[in-house]
Amino acid sequence: MPRRLRLGRIEQIAALVLALFLLLAARLFFIQVVRHHEYRGKQMRQVDSKRSIPARRGRILDRKGRVLAFDVVAYDVSVFKSRVRRADLDALSGALGRSRRELQQALRAGERFVTLGRQVTLSRAAAKRLASLPGVCLDRRSFRQYPFGTLAAQYLGFTDVQGRGVEGIEKSFDETLRGTPGEKVFLRDENGAPLAMRSARDPQDGADLVLALDLDVQRIAD
Asked: pLDDT tens digit string along 94-120?
């Protein structure tokens, strides 16, 4: 190959590389300088959102270990569509009591963050398994139950909708029973829709409380 022809090709390649470099530099200048305020505004609107995870409130038991008050724990189950795996739909189907086809339809019709089930009762093992799946998010909710109804109701007291003790034993030993809530931190877009979960801290359940009260004696007294 003639030397002049070879040099000509090298010059063409060098000119092409230089043109690409200048194009990239111009694009960076456009983004970082010309449209700086626009992109900065979008970044500022993508904010972290914290969500509290309620702890399981401790049980109240009589002197023989019979449960007088306990928490029923349920979960809202949601997914990030972009991260959920098709192979995990069977696990979601079994936990939610919905067919695989129903879940696929819900995912196709929904936005990026889709709630597939609300107030779903799960065992601890099932909840732990679902929470370990990519893109699956569990929001835990607790509901106080008194299996013996009004028996010793004035003595036991009750909790409010936030799960805090407001009367009786529930109030007097609230700090012992309530535990420590956990926390999830989400990155949200400018419209408030969740983009991804940044971090999570598990709740610490409350301690059980054993009373001197005897359920049989209390039933007779009532």
From this structure: 888 889 899 988 888 877 888 898 888
**pTM reported for the whole predicted model:** 0.59
C-alpha 5 chain-centroid distance: 65
The CA–CA distances, whole Å, from 118 to 21, 127, 167, 201 equal 53, 13, 29, 21
- Would you state the pLDDT for residue 194? 61
pLDDT for the residue 43: 56
The CA distance from 170 to 178, in Å, is 9
Instruction: Yes or no: say if 116 and 98 are a contact pair by the CB < 8 Å rule.
Output: yes
* Tens-digit pLDDT profile for residues 50-88: 777 788 899 999 999 999 999 988 888 988 888 888 888
Distance between CA atoms of 86 and 14, rounded to whole angstroms? 47
Helices (H), the chain: 3-29, 36-45, 89-96, 100-109, 124-131, 153-156, 168-172, 174-178, 215-221
Residue carrying structure tokens 């535990």: 179
C-alpha–C-alpha distance, residues 127 and 130, integer Å: 5
Q: What is the pLDDT of residue 65?
A: 94
Residue 79 three-state SS = strand
> How buried is residue 182: exposed, middle or buried, by Cβ count under 10 Å (0-12/13-18/19+)?
middle
Closest CA to 68 of 53, 78, 77, 57: 57
